[in-house]
């Protein structure tokens, strides 16, 4: 049974603050390298573009862009490796 404890309330409040406090997305700095995270499943593809920037004198890895889509029927036959490659090429 779920019990709303003080720790869970604090965690929820922390999550709300993170989702509502700027910057939610960083502006890209094209002089710095990017990091691309991808994932694929039997249902869809997803990617996130991140970059490490200096924010308040600290290096912070922050999101630049998120993207996702459903797979189409002809892609549903792909194995895990092919699906990950598809995701990389698509992203």
From TrEMBL:
<dbReference type="Pfam" id="PF17919">
    <property type="entry name" value="RT_RNaseH_2"/>
</dbReference>
<dbReference type="InterPro" id="IPR043502">
    <property type="entry name" value="DNA/RNA_pol_sf"/>
</dbReference>
<keyword id="KW-0511">Multifunctional enzyme</keyword>
<feature type="domain" description="Reverse transcriptase/retrotransposon-derived protein RNase H-like">
    <location>
        <begin position="8"/>
        <end position="91"/>
    </location>
</feature>
<dbReference type="InterPro" id="IPR041577">
    <property type="entry name" value="RT_RNaseH_2"/>
</dbReference>
<dbReference type="InterPro" id="IPR050951">
    <property type="entry name" value="Retrovirus_Pol_polyprotein"/>
</dbReference>
<protein>
    <recommendedName>
        <fullName>Reverse transcriptase/retrotransposon-derived protein RNase H-like domain-containing protein</fullName>
    </recommendedName>
</protein>
<dbReference type="GO" id="GO:0003824">
    <property type="term" value="F:catalytic activity"/>
</dbReference>
């Amino acid at each position: 049974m779920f019990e709303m404890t003080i720790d869970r309330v604090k965690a929820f409040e922390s999550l709300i603050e993170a989702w509502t406090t700027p910057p939610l997305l960083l502006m890209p700095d094209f002089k710095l390298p990017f990091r691309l995270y991808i994932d694929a499943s039997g249902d869809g593809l997803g990617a996130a573009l991140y970059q490490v920037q200096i924010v308040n004198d600290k290096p912070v890895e922050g999101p630049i862009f998120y993207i996702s889509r459903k797979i189409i029927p002809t892609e549903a036959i792909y194995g895990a490796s092919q699906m990950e490659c598809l995701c990389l090429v698509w992203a």
